[in-house]
């Protein structure tokens, strides 16, 4: 198969032998694939399979896996981004797409004290993330979580990851992220809303082991800050 062959996403393909309805419709109605054609399918769990179409049905295409083409091997430390959703959700959607392309293991959307948007359509965001995963030819889906409070987010973190919180309060001590960042280890980054974290949230994060950092002299938009830390983690590892 050529390098530009479309990836299909079917998380249960091994157990069911079918592409999901949305993927089936794309394969049959858009790409005009037919019985006997070979395709590449990822389960989003680290495996890429070559499969042959047994039944070309736009509501549920039956396939037979013929071989495992590739398996995911982690070459970089994991990165987890905790970020408050922006009022304009399309900015977060764009950020997510780009972060998936370079590599993001988990994203937590957090409703902080100053968050304006109190609800997001997680299902829509998941579709955007899956599309970006397939486009960038990755084999593992990015986990997305919603947290009603920062306190809720802080209780879900692994003990072994380095933790950084970027905030704008100049009254406390902050390090440049480029200097504070520890290479070769899993990282969790916290990015606040347009109105920044509240003082009590900053203190709660610090009490949970987060190192206060700044992302340079410029004040960045929320989604730009999210991209910044994602790119830095990718570049330094």
Automatic annotation (TrEMBL):
Domain Ribosomal RNA small subunit methyltransferase E methyltransferase positions: 77-229
Q: List each copy of the Ribosomal RNA small subunit methyltransferase E PUA-like domain by range.
A: 19-61
Q: Its principal location?
A: cytoplasm
GO terms for cellular component? cytoplasm
Give a yes or no for keyword S-adenosyl-L-methionine in this entry: yes
For the biological process aspect of GO, one term held by this record is: rRNA base methylation
Write one Gene Ontology MF term.
Answer: rRNA (uridine-N3-)-methyltransferase activity
Primary enzyme class: transferase
Q: Which reaction does it catalyse?
A: uridine(1498) in 16S rRNA + S-adenosyl-L-methionine = N(3)-methyluridine(1498) in 16S rRNA + S-adenosyl-L-homocysteine + H(+)
The lineage's top-level taxon is: Bacteria
Establish whether keyword Hydrolase is in the entry. Answer: no
Compartments where located: Cytoplasm
List the keywords (alphabetical). Cytoplasm, Methyltransferase, rRNA processing, S-adenosyl-L-methionine, Transferase
Q: What's the Enzyme Commission number for this chain?
A: 2.1.1.193
Q: Which family does it belong to?
A: Belongs to the RNA methyltransferase RsmE family.
So what does this one do? Specifically methylates the N3 position of the uracil ring of uridine 1498 (m3U1498) in 16S rRNA. Acts on the fully assembled 30S ribosomal subunit.
NCBIfam families cross-referenced by the UniProt entry = RsmE family RNA methyltransferase
Protein name in UniProt: Ribosomal RNA small subunit methyltransferase E
Organism, scientific name: Porphyromonas cangingivalis
Give the taxonomic lineage as stored in the record. Answer: Bacteria, Pseudomonadati, Bacteroidota, Bacteroidia, Bacteroidales
